[in-house]
Amino acid sequence: MPLKVMTIFGTRPEAVKMAPLVKELESRAEIQSICCITAQHRQMLDDVLQLFAIQPDYDLDIMEARQSLYTITSKCLLGMEEVFSREKPDLVLVHGDTSTTFSGALAAFYQKIAVGHVEAGLRTWDKYSPFPEEMNRTLVGDLAEFHFCPTQANRENLLREGLREGIFVTGNTVIDALKTTVRPDYRFRSQLLNTLDYTRKQVILVTCHRRENYGQPMTNIMRALRRIVEDFPQVELVYPVHLSPVVQEAARAHLSGHDRIHLIEPLTPDEMHNVMARSAFVMTDSGGLQEEAPALGRPVLVLRRETERPEAVAAGTVLLAGTEEDVIYGHAARLLTDPAAYRAMAQAVNPYGDGQACRRIVDAILWKRGLRDQPPEEFSAG
């Protein structure tokens, strides 16, 4: 009998990083791959499923207008109780730090199903930032049997917490995904993105949507972005605005009405990866872009007070810009006017992977289950 492995994800960032793993699981004769989505993000998730040609076996379809952490978590738990009772998987794989991730791991634990945590060991050591992601990720670590860490630093975080078994350093699966999406001849669906002058203009790609940035921090960020465009005529700012009503309202209030600020709909993963590859640099409060942009040699200004991804900060390709207007503006201005500072950050240092993370994860599962003779070699950025 093949090993029955179920992948669970519900948001677009999870889907981008889990899609190549689903494909790797499907390619192995020793594994029966089952895919369950919660659709915590409906529209944005569907774009990823279409891009990677993934047909889920189960779709909980939980998303509702202005959903809360309470509704997401409770609907995930109840939906997955039924799925697990029907399928009885040998192993459940969850990713990262979303409410889907925590709910999937907890639901599996309730039925004594083993849990594998993909992208394990990231920490800020502040349980309220990012919120609720830091605690989601930490709690899943306590529930999991397998811990698939992108980097050695992530492994050390888990060791610091007292974990000793089932830890593997694999690299990040997002690098596996990038290998399939970024192309020099890529054509965007939006004519705007096809016609921007990426050579003579300085295109800044922006994302901003974190819950902990709601309110004054987001206002500060938006004001800094507006100042940057107004003060530097060579800048074109591309901002795919998150579907959250809070984010939509803030972006329109502070950034609309300028001909070099392009507030556009959320991009599909392949579009996001390719516009990132052509941009001068990235300003974001996202976690995933902190991993993707260094792989493409693009500097990143992180619009947060801390990051659970310090490897690129140490490598010099990511800088914590915080959420104060003047500080954000100053860091961006330096990248726009100081070629040496830009080159120092644009060095293509990639501490997050080599495109083989999914193979390592599946090899580790098979080895631990006695279906492979040797453990996988570990990823090393050095």
From TrEMBL:
Protein keywords: Isomerase
Domain named UDP-N-acetylglucosamine 2-epimerase: residues: 23-365
Domain of life: Bacteria
EC number(s) on file: 5.1.3.14
GO MF annotation, one: UDP-N-acetylglucosamine 2-epimerase activity
Family statement: Belongs to the UDP-N-acetylglucosamine 2-epimerase family.
Name of the protein in its database record: UDP-N-acetylglucosamine 2-epimerase (non-hydrolyzing)
